[in-house]
Specification:
The complex is a heterodimer of chains A (78) and B (176).
Chain A lengths: L4 E7 L6 H10 L7 E6 L4 H12 L2 E8 L2 E7 L3
Parallel strand pairs in A: 1-2
Antiparallel strand pairs in A: 2-4, 3-4
Chain B lengths: L1 H8 L3 H4 L6 E6 L4 H16 L3 E6 L19 H9 L17 H12 L5 H10 L3 E4 L1 H7 L16 H8 L3 E4 L1
Parallel strand pairs in B: 1-2, 1-4, 2-3
Helix pairs in contact in B: 3-6
Classes of the chains: A alpha+beta (78), B alpha/beta (176).
């Protein structure tokens, strides 16, 4: 991916609902179209980030898992 | 380059922020830790999802909004006795089941800490930051002799059942 990530959130170790809540707090500071990256270890974050993007209209650009760390890249809705 | 174009073509952020497409209303009637905890989790999440979220605190549900440092509330002896038997504040909540004179909540809080589950206080702070409306029930305040000074900061003006039901008319409503 060649686009710049504006903000990265380290949410490792946090449980529901904080990974989503803190991403929602942080995305307020972004401009529409900008990317935010959230790193979480809560397995529940996988369905929750998908549900959150469906609900809010933000775009889940990328999701992956590496060594128990889930990575979500989200584009703020424009 | 595509990101740059998207940024330039996007409308002004002011028009996009805070456009809730759904509403969530929670009636918090219980002051038990095991009920107020999910109440704060769902309230915070609703706001994070862009839902206009309101929590009405009524009857026993109002106790969690009492300041932790306030010991005795009420104007007459019965109200004062009530507050002594059931101290308010997020730090003094009991479990609905298996309370064991406070051992249950202590174990629950320890487990939550070990599993990095946010405390009710932490959730309350996030909820307020995300704009959750926290509304105390006026009737319960009168019943228990609670004043606005007894309650935490950052909450709305007290209201009644009509306000709660009007708010709930076009909302997802939970009774916890």
């Amino acid at each position: 991916m060649d686009e710049t990530i504006t903000k990265t959130l380290d949410l490792k170790g946090l449980s529901c609902p904080l990974p989503i809540a803190k991403t929602a707090q942080a995305i307020r500071d972004l401009q529409p179209g900008e990317l935010i990256e959230s790193l979480a270890t809560d397995p529940g974050a996988v369905p929750d980030f998908n549900a959150w993007c469906t609900s809010t209209g933000h775009e889940l650009v990328e999701q992956s898992e590496d060594g128990g760390v889930y990575r979500f890249v989200i584009r703020k809705k424009g | 380059m595509t990101a740059m174009q998207a940024t330039l073509e996007a409308p002004a952020p002011a028009q996009l922020e805070h456009v809730p497409h759904k509403k969530l209303v929670i009636m918090a009637w219980s002051g038990d830790l095991d009920k107020i905890w999910p109440t704060f989790i769902l309230g915070t999440t609703g706001a994070a999802m862009g839902m206009e979220t309101t929590i009405f605190f009524t009857f026993w549900g109002l106790f969690p909004l009492v300041r932790n440092e306030v010991h005795i509330t009420g104007e007459n002896w019965m109200q004062k006795m009530m507050s002594m038997m059931n101290r308010g504040g997020t730090e003094h909540l009991k479990l609905g089941k298996m309370n064991f004179v406070g051992a249950g909540p202590a174990m629950m809080k320890k487990l939550a800490e070990e599993h990095h589950v946010a405390s009710p206080d932490e959730l309350l702070e996030v909820a307020r930051d995300l704009g959750v409306h926290l509304v105390p029930c006026q009737m319960t305040m009168d019943l228990l002799g609670l004043t606005k000074d007894d309650l935490i900061d950052g909450i709305e003006e007290p209201a009644g059942a009509t306000t709660a039901l009007l708010e709930a008319q076009d909302a997802v409503t939970l009774f916890i």
